[in-house]
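Here is an idea for our session: we take a single protein and study its fold together. Once you have written the record down, we can walk along the chain together.
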Amino acid sequence: MTEARNGAVDGPVADEAVERPEEDDYDLLTFGEAGARLEIEIRSVRREVIALEQADPVDDAALTTARARLADLEEGQRRNRAQPINDENFERFFGYAGKARRNTE
């Protein structure tokens, strides 16, 4: 990992733009927007974990808490990706027949 001029860290916690579907309705918390927000928070907590690991002395309690939060966020991200809405499951999810504005698979 290297630190960029703006203080951002390169590698798995880099500050590249988080991908958001262009067709999402941003007045609603869609699967796509929830996923984007989760990714932003995961990157933030990863940076926190790295900083805590590199601290001298290491604050074991804070590091344990940050690692647990990261694990919880990553599990939430997996759940968010597990049930994408598509044309086949739209009616079961929403309770009426229709078409997904976009397939999320």
About this structure: The two ends are 32 Å apart (CA to CA). Residues 1-10 have pLDDT under 50 and may be disordered.
